[in-house]
Amino acid sequence: MKKIFNIALSASMLLAGATACEDELDVVNPNYATTEEFGKTAADLEEVAIACYNRIRIEGTFARVGYLFEVVMGDEVNTYSDNDWWRAWDYLSIPQSNDVARWVFRDWYYTLNTCNYLLTYVDQVGLDTESDQYKQLKGQGLFLRGLAYYELACYFQDIPLITDYSTYTSLDGLYVPTASQSEVLDQVEADLSEAMTLLPSRDKGGEWANGRATCGAAAGYYARALMFRHKFDKALPVLKDIIAGKYGTYKLLADYGDNFRSTVENQEESLWEVQFLDYGVGGSDMEWTPVNNSKSSSQGQALETVFGNSTIAGWNDLASTPWLYQTFKSQKTTAGTVDPRLYWTLISYETDYNSMSGYANTAFTYDYTYHVTTGAHLGISVAKHTTARENLYSTVAAAGLSCGVNLRLMRYSDVLLRAAECENEINGPTQQAIDWINQVRNRAGLQSLELANFPSADALFEQIANVERPTEFGCEHGRFQDILRWGWLYDAGRLAQLRKHGCTMWLEDVVADKYNELVAEYCEANNCEAKDLKEEVTAELSAAAKEYAVSTYAGKVPNTVSEADDDPYSKWIAGHEYMPIYEGDMQANYNLVGNSANNSTSNIDFYEGYTIHPVVEGIGVQ
Questions:
Q1: Neighbours of 255 (CB within 10 A)
Q2: According to the model, what pLDDT value does residue 543 have?
């Protein structure tokens, strides 16, 4: 499937028709189908299905901001850029006048438009409803629509819910009233549960093992949607069925790094991943907006550019929080080395790698004691879903949409840890939950957990939430969705913990303070004044100050919030955990009423009757 996602089907193509003046020759372009002609055959709908996949690979879906806004809203990643629109998401303070939020809203509705077209017309082309082709077409449309609405519900909470393409014939049909998040998630569950019954498994082979939506992907996302609303009793049987192989054969790969290499994709651990063309395979055009349908599209993702340090030609926008680094460093493998998952998650220099086969201390062929961002926050650059650890080229190959690493959005390890979480929620700490967790830990070479060390469900939840999930999925899309469903922003203890996790220090402030100290010491020792120092002396002292900052503070977690220079979660206002619907869309659609971010209203009622686990001290890095 990786090589065929190059057919773009825009809303304008579906809605446009050929027109002609009364006395002029009506010439029909045979290479441009109209709505009167297109969509009337199963072959047409096969192309629409491909267009549905194409829509999840653009700017506002998963190619850049649709993936990374969720990442930076979590406690594992901060912005290290002066770009205001990254900072707004990091601080959970997005104004409704910010039209960048609209990119996510816009592009997921482009996806929904195409999915609705497929689902509306699949029943009108005469296919036998028991045929494989009918089931596969409908199943793919349902899965991708369920995925789109799930992402929109997690980002925007209350949104328009449109499921019938025929309603697009008028503005009234498009400008539907806002649906509640609960109504949207009901639709997500309905779509995904039906897709589970229609789609083949990856065991069918061919494209079904190489990028097409499968029943396993639908089952995984169905469980994920159920867990968002704490339906653990319904999610656990689905997760158990995935583990038992009902929806295809899945297993943990022996090498964790194979989940992120550009050369090892669509393997048995992946339930669902977004396909991108390898660097140099696609064209050179950077299609940042969905209206471009260039035949020379690069068809890559931009995570490598956004995560990349400026010294390797990246944009220096995002990097990990020190808490995530410390969490990795807090436990060793049974061989006494650092957790190997750190290598594939963050670009840090660890002496342990020298004794670990296949773990060279390199990142784009450069060695750094700490691969920190320059002139901004003190953080460690992210390696995951980039080629930084593969050394395919010496710097970020081409800024923008050029990286060809597929985004693995759901892996089998997530199924195991979610099953453990559900088991713990229903039955308290059990050996079965521990066994599922240990499968993930043992793959990384870590010591097995013992049930006796977790006297309560709260204690085991703490281990899952703040040790197992961060080290397995660090810097991947989904952490903030977890924070939302766990209700942490609405619990005082958890909010304080998030504030500590999100703490970081400004490298430039540390460097400046140390530089002034070194200048004062030099002047005292040499009986001179700072204004008289020669350029080579100031350069030497500046380099020493930076070296001090990196070696002293990189990867360190402040002991208290007050010791940190920056604390993004302190800016949070109840309701603003969701992105506001753009004011221009609010004005255009008179039926929209906005969400909690538009109206600054608390969502505490959402968690009524749900368990928000209190912080359990002594587990993980807190």
A1: 13
A2: 87
For residue range 562-616, list pLDDT tens digits in order. Answer: 666 678 899 899 999 999 999 999 999 889 999 999 999 999 999 999 999 999 9
Q: C-alpha dihedral over 311, 312, 314, 316, to 10 degrees?
A: -30
User: Are the CB atoms for 102 and 585 separated by under 8 Å?
Assistant: yes
Q: Tell me if 180 sits within 8 A of 158, measured CB to CB.
A: yes
**Alpha-carbon gap, residue 108 to 58, rounded angstroms:** 9
Share of the chain above pLDDT 90, in %: 67
Contact status, residue 401 vs residue 63, Cβ threshold 8 Å: yes
Q: Are 507 and 310 spatial neighbours (Cβ–Cβ below 8 Å)?
A: no
Positive or negative, the Cα torsion across 529, 530, 531, 532? positive
Q: Which H or E run contains 499?
A: helix 492-501
Q: Which residue has the tokens 């199963």?
A: 42
What is the distance between the terminal CA atoms of the chain, rounded to a whole angstrom?
43
Question: C-alpha angle with apex 116: 161 to 105, nearest 5 degrees?
Answer: 50
- Rounded distance, CA 90 to CA 521, Å? 38
> For the purposes of burial, counting CB atoms within 10 Å of the CB of 483, is it exposed (0-12), middle (13-18) or buried (19 or more)?
buried
Q: Where are the beta strands (DSSP E) in 41-139?
A: 77-79
Strand, helix or coil at 297?
A: strand
Give the whole-angstrom CA distance, residue 346 versus residue 602: 35
User: Which helix H or strand E contains 524, and what residues bound it?
Assistant: helix 507-526
Strand ranges (E), 367-479: 407-411
Q: Of all residues in the chain, what percent are helix, strand and coil, respectively (each to 5)?
A: 50, 5, 45
- The two tokens of residue 456 are 């309560």
Residue type for 601, please? T
CA distance 111 to 156: 16
Residue 304: pLDDT over 60: yes
For 305-338, what is each residue's pLDDT tens digit?
Answer: 998 877 677 888 898 888 898 899 999 999 999 9
- Residue 24's CB: how many other CB atoms inside 10 A? 7
Q: Indicate the range of 12-21, 134-143, 473-482 predicted with least confidence.
A: 12-21
DSSP string spanning 347-389? -B--GGGGGSTT--S-BTTB--SB-B-SSSB--B-B-TTSSTT
